[in-house]
């Protein structure tokens, strides 16, 4: 699998990921055990940040051989922190050299940032990807606005399987229900906040089906590396209902009956 968002590089200035090579090596081992063979390294960054990017490139180059020992290929990336990204230009760092740019919003500045960043990234030739919206926004209108403003969405595997608590999982599932997810990545920072791709893929397969799991874990990451727009996943629900069952099992039953209801509607 390809992981498009990961803080695995050791000791990158300004990042809160792996502090040293020892931790990075342990993370490589965990990543490989989780079925990951390609990692886009995405330390936190700002723009302009020439010195930081230069240092990041040096660290990645020095780490590539170690990653190869685990059968892992490292690719260049950055997770841009806002609101520092108002002057995007063509020198911005896209994921794996593509025109896709990973953007982490600052919650308190979100309202003033979304439109400006979308305009700025698009005019510089980039497609913005919103990193882990499920951890930033609990307002349905905000997330819809981000999607409608031209962002694609990257959810974090640990959010979906419940590692960040029930509310975060519930919102993640609502996003999936409505097709507001294009990528699922680890956003791994350490051995204790590590890789959940395999568990998440199994969860998605069980609750959303093989087609959705294949789009999210195989097809869209490959399309990203080929600089192609992602596929949309099937929409399970058209309406966001705050009163959806909180229990994952009940939600699963709810979706089952919803699908059956929709299928019956299609036959009419
Ligand atoms: Fe991140």
Describe what this molecule looks like in 3D:
The protein has 268 residues and is an alpha/beta fold. It has one domain (2-242): Metal-dependent hydrolases (TIM Barrel), CATH 3.20.20. Helices cover 45% and strands 13% of the residues. The strands form two sheets. A six-stranded parallel sheet has the order 3-5-6-7-8-9. Helix 1 (21-33) links the parallel strand 1 and strand 2 (38-41). Helix 7 crosses helix 8. The chain binds fe (ii) ion (FE2).
Specify the CATH homologous superfamily.
Answer: Metal-dependent hydrolases
Q: Please describe the biggest sheet, giving its number of strands, its sense, and whether it closes into a barrel.
A: 6 strands, parallel
How confident is the prediction overall: mean pLDDT? 86
Total E-strand runs: 9
List the uncertain runs. Answer: 261-268
Order of strands in the sheet with the most strands? 3-5-6-7-8-9
CATH architecture field = Alpha-Beta Barrel
The coarse silhouette is globular
Stated plainly, the CATH topology is called TIM Barrel
Structurally, the number of domains stands at 1
Per DSSP, the total helix count is 9
Radius of gyration: 18 Å
Helix content: 40-55%
Features:
single chain; 268 residues; alpha/beta; TIM Barrel; binds fe (ii) ion
Question: How are the SSEs ordered, and which strands pair?
Answer:
Elements: E1 2-6, H1 21-33, E2 38-41, E3 44-45, H2 50-69, E4 73-76, E5 79-81, E6 100-104, H3 110-123, E7 127-131, H4 140-148, E8 152-156, H5 157-160, H6 166-177, E9 183-185, H7 197-208, H8 210-225, H9 248-267
Helix pairs in contact: 7-8
The structure holds fe (ii) ion (FE2).
Fe (ii) ion (FE2) binds next to loops.
